[in-house]
Amino acid sequence: MTKITPQPGIMDIALYQGGQSHVAGVKHVIKLSSNENPFGPSPKAIEAVRDSAATLNRYPSTDHASLRDAIGTRHGLNPARIICGVGSDEVLQFVAQAYAGPGDEVIYTEHGFSMYPIIARMVGATPLMVAEKNRHVDVDNILAAVTDQTRIVFVTNPGNPTSTMIPEAELVRLAEALPQTCLMVVDGAYAEFVADFDGGAALVDRFENVVMTRTFSKIYGLGGMRVGWGYAAQSIIDVLNRVRQPFNLSLTALAAAEAAIRDEDYLTFCHSENARLRVWLSEELAKVGVPSDASCTNFILVRFEDQAEAEACDDYLKTKGLIVRRVAGYNLLNALRITVGDEEACRRVVAAITAFKGGVA
Ligand code: PMP
Predict the structure, then answer these.
(1) Which residue has the CA at smallest separation from atom 7 of ligand 1?
(2) Ligand 1 within 6 A of 113 CB?
(3) What's the whole-model pTM score?
(4) Which end of the chain is more exposed for a tag (fewer CB within 10 A), N or C?
């Protein structure tokens, strides 16, 4: 028996539960459990990946200058204040590594992304969950939980798995009230799905202690490439770069992300198709007694009578080859999260849930 024991707290870290992608005994499945882009990446990103193969003998850029320039151009941001990571997960981790440790507290909200408490524990800090109100982040609840030990507050806007937005004025109120010793991280993984929304960039420019994180995994369809980025005050970016591995992003990932962000036509296509299909999906499901909040994202959170009905529906969908996400682990017991797929996927979901509810599909 080995005498080697892990560091204190390591075994308290929950293993991340990702979206399921297989169903035993079902050959052809449609995966609607991880909020991926059903249309795939931009054809230009695929071409860039192919082209990158010829130079795989070379190390990738350490400073990601070309990708940061492309992000800066697209969003009107100073590239020097951008940092890139292996998914936005890694950027969130940089923040925790650099700013929190044993004895510190990290606040996240009841239905917040499950990586926040995992990341807090990874650095030895204590995660503290704060209640939401009717699936909306409640700023007063957050402020009531802040102590002298609070180092980071994570909020997601729009939320996952709630799909709801935090009003701008509420975020300003939160940023204004937080002590200067506490960072506020605005996670904008789904920001691109909201029309005319800066994802929190203006907040970063106004408040020194606000960090915005973004991802290429959602609207850009590059979940498999693992590219995310953060935007913050120069002083914070300078700190975060010290905990970043020099070659954290592969040459291929950098090429794909840069080509994707430069392809604005494809982005517009994905945005409008998602908006159209999302509205149709939620309206059709509401008609058969399965309501959802108005969604600002590429998924909807549908509600059932109770947890038993939500789970029975999930089981039924699986028999039809449709994999959606259970969210009981996010304190949403009677709900399922369904990624907005392509037209065929949406039609199949509506037909299956209609049949489940006893209607004719
Ligand atoms: N934040 C939120 C709210 C998410 O839903 C996700 C992905 N599920 C992430 C961050 C991490 O995304 P990635 O690491 O793929 O950029």
Answers:
(1) 189
(2) yes
(3) 0.96
(4) N
